Amino acid sequence: MYKIETKKNIAENIFRMDVVAPYIAKSALPGQFVIVRTHEHGERIPLTICDFDKNKGIVTLVIQVLGASSKKICEINQGECISDITGPLGNPSEFINFSDEQLNSKKFLFIAGGLGSAPVYPQVKWLSIHNVKPDVIIGAKTGNMMIFENEMKPFAENVFPATDDGSYGFKGLVTDMLEDLIINQKKKYDEIIAIGPMIMMKFVSLATKKHGLKTTVSLNSIMVDGTGMCGACRVNVGGKIKFTCVDGPEFDGHLVDFDEALRRQIMYKNHEQQANCKCM
Amino acid sequence: MANKIPRVHAREQDAKKRITNFDEVCYGYSADEAMLEASRCLNCKNPRCINDCPVNIDIPGFILQIAKNSFAKAAEIVAQYSSLPAVCGRVCPQETQCEGSCILGVKNEPVAIGKLERFIADWARENNLNFLDKSPCNGKRIAVIGSGPAGLTCAYDLAKIGYEVTVFEALHETGGVLAYGIPEFRLPKKTVVAHEIENLKKIGAQIETNIIIGRTLTVDQLLDEEKFDAVFIGTGAGLPKFMNIKGENLNGVMSANEFLTRANLMKAFDRNYDTPIYAGKKAVVVGGGNVAMDAARTALRLGSDVTVVYRRTEVELPARREEVIHAKEEGINFNMLTNPVEIIEDEKGWVKAIRCVRCKLGEPDSSGRRSPVVIPDSEFDIETDVVIMALGTSPNPLISSTTKGLQINKHKCIMVDDHGQTSRAGVFAGGDVTTGAATVILAMGAGRKAAKAIDKYLNQV
Are residues A140 and A213 in the same domain? Predict the structure, then answer.
């Protein structure tokens, strides 16, 4: 059992939870994720790691109420426990292996959409600790759905908020913001890291391809075990089959077959609604 | 004459009924049935069955005790050789091992050694008879990675002789393939598997679930930081293989590992559990091993009309004979000498059909089995909603790729000597991670051998 040390409602239907998991906190790196099972009858759900504190033995998760299982996690109160958390899973972000010269020679732009701010945060923080300050676009549907803007600010050179409805920051999609930065503001970037809904990552990748900008995306495929066993998370990257859990979760956005990835994400959606294939 | 008694058939749940539930198919022997079956054993002077058992159980010895109604004595004999008899009695391919060489099998049916092993193990469990005597603690610490058959056996043997053993399991549940792979209707989890884990705990081993060695901790950390004196790697062969044919990423195509993990580990067949599972109205399972049979029979129980396609003939099916018989009784369709070449999609990207070719058997290949040869222009489609690939598995590279100085072969299996010693001092391995996918009993045997080697190694250091 793993205790929820603190729980905060940070936006509508979005919760931040600090979970006591010392081994994971000790070995986690930016780009990795965990799998959580809230209770005996629960699903195993992959969740990105938002932050980790080796000294306190805490892993921070950010969860949005979307389906039945995420609702169940969000219903757990501060001080209560979840049955299982395991990780860190997946490979850390590519840049953590870069030399100081490599890091300093690059200007990074992060594009975080919706809940994507959570996994972007530890990457921006890591770079900042290594004396590299990236730019960050944070996109949200509307102003009060925007998360991690203030947390990101100390570690970023610039944070550019954008909302679909224009209620806060730039009015438009993150791809519109990206075009504005590159074309109107003449910003120069060497690497783009986009994390958010699959559809957003698809369109960011299309846009950056046009500008010839290297783009990394972090996929949130369906998975069961997260260690390479089930293959539910397989994705077509440059014509090769990769497993998101062990080969990813970060891939070259220009090589990912997003249409297939989007289709595979709904594999169990219809069946969930159709009262399922249950025997007893 | 003892051998005039026909083999006693173990009672089974009726096929029509059992396809609507996940309860165990075989009920096993009653005491009287077991004694009658045991009386068939000729107690040969040179028992071939012992040689053909991977852990060389004194088979005539324990069967003689069953025949004499000395069940406790019989259980004690089995326990000397096997730490998982209730499992092996259920899942071993007896027809190619002990029972395959039984002299009675030449003219009649062999002694039902598997069913007798199961009987005596179940009897011991139900009568709370255990063999948990252990030596005093010797203060040396062993990390066992993986709680499947190899790890459980290695941990059990080492705990028994006084080692302080910690078992690390990546999943939330212990048992490895016994938990995620083999279905409930073949191996009951709460009674049989849980009992083995309980015994391990009773003998003093600690079990840490949710720890993925290679991610949460590395083998190097176990030795250097966590101060373990030796490590045993029994992580199995968990990576599914795919065919690399067109359409394999369509919705509705999955590995047997995924399908069975959802059903067995996550209990997705039970509506009290949240994990979804999809078996479609029609399902095609590709492969002919035990995993293919398990996937097919699981899909059937979820309401699907199931066809197994296999590129050789029924004679070459690698599955246990009993599973094939059970599958047929339950109404699984078998399409032999058939090999998929493409999976066809509907307009929404879901599986609509699987395109196959017919094969005939050619010359024997390196495995000694006659290899399938495609018959030209024999393409045909089988309509289906779901395709489950049961083509075998290979070891997970998570540990080999994160451990210094650990040699692997071209199949990604960790290389070991005859005693389970890897290329790295203090690190041992056994089971599917060294051989590729094999059987529970071979993994158990390897775990046992490595336990002896670890003991020897630590007494020399």
Answer: yes
